[in-house]
Amino acid sequence: MTAPTPSAAYDILVAGGAGVDTIVRVAELRVPPGDSVFVPPVHDYVAHTGNGVARGARALGMATKFIDFVGDDIQGRTILEAYAADGLDFSHVVSPHGTPRGVNLVDPQGRRFSFYDGRHPADLRLPRAFYLPYLERARHVHLSITGVTKDMYDDVHRLGVPSSTDLHDWDGTNPHHLTYALASDYVFLSAATIHDRLDEVLRSIVDRGRARLVVATDGAAGCHVLERGDEKVRHFAAVRPPAPVVDSNGAGDAFVSAFLYALARGETVEECVLAGSVSGAFACTSAGTHTEFIDADGLRDGRAAAAAG
To answer: Can you give the pTM of this predicted structure?
Structure first.
């Protein structure tokens, strides 16, 4: 464990969600006949949701701190080397269970299906003595839904630190995700599994929890937003990617990081959504998970181009 510098102040603390993805490019997202198939070269990437938000926020110029468990294994060392090369401020606790991994199948249209190994036991938590000094210096905290962050909410609320989370493809009922949905101030999720219950699920998060705002991203269909006090869910159109779409891995994390960047700057919800949409569209134009991140200049230009039509 590494203690923070006493004078440090973080625009955002990202807790949980470091790992390694293996990307397999396939002709289509289905199992073909037989027991084997040739595919293009398989690559490993430092990845997972907290990684994407932290590195995306840092690329935009936010003072970013990232904390998590990683294993004393090849994957863990790969993560540490990547963050050292990036200059990302990362502190960790060694997990005896190893570093989380995922295997993602990606088709020619850039759509993906992920297999996440979820190797951390359900009761594994980041130690309070480890995370609290960082939390006390954070202006915002983003908690990944990996479970290791669940016990942080008491301190988050006690300190009054605004919080966010990403529920990913939550079905609207899974109790694991529900804990995060009801305890966070800003909630992001994918609309993938709740299209027929979109308004109901978003409304339940606001009515039952503390969320000031809920955003359901919906790929090429844009996103849906419900603010506390609003009667209706608003729809926002997607932004056209600046280049052909090759891989949607990391697009949701890119959306979140740019949305939170704009939010930290005091921008309106509409401006935050546009920032997120531009960043998410940009992420779809590079192969692999979290291999390129939009910077503040790119985001400014992308927003201007989107506003101009």
So the answer is: 0.93
User: What is the rounded CA–CA span in Å between residue 144 and residue 100?
Assistant: 13
Residues 6+ apart with CB under 8 A from 154: none
Q: Indicate the pLDDT class of residue 1, thresholds 50, 70 and 90.
A: very low
Phi, psi of 143 (to 5 degrees): -105, 120
Contact of 169 with 192, CB cutoff 8 Å: yes
Nearest CA among 85, 50, 43, 84 for reference residue 69: 50
Q: Which residue type sits at 111?
A: R
Q: How confident is the model at residue 286 (pLDDT cuts 50, 70, 90)?
A: confident
Asked whether the CA dihedral 132, 138, 144, 150 is positive or negative, the reply is positive
Say if residues 110 and 284 touch (Cβ distance below 8 Å).
yes
Please report, for residues 7, 22, 100, 120, 279, the alpha-carbon distance to residue 117 in angstroms, rounded to integers and kept in the order given: 38, 12, 6, 9, 27
Pairing outcome for strands 223-227 and 234-236: antiparallel
With tokens 């989370």, the residue in question is 165
Q: How would residue 4 be classed by pLDDT, with cut points 50, 70 and 90?
A: very low
How many other C-beta atoms are found inside a 10 Å radius of the C-beta of residue 172? 18
Cα gap 198→224, rounded to integer Å: 9
pLDDT digits (tens, 9 = 90+) for 184-239: 999 999 999 999 999 999 999 999 999 999 999 999 999 999 999 999 999 999 99
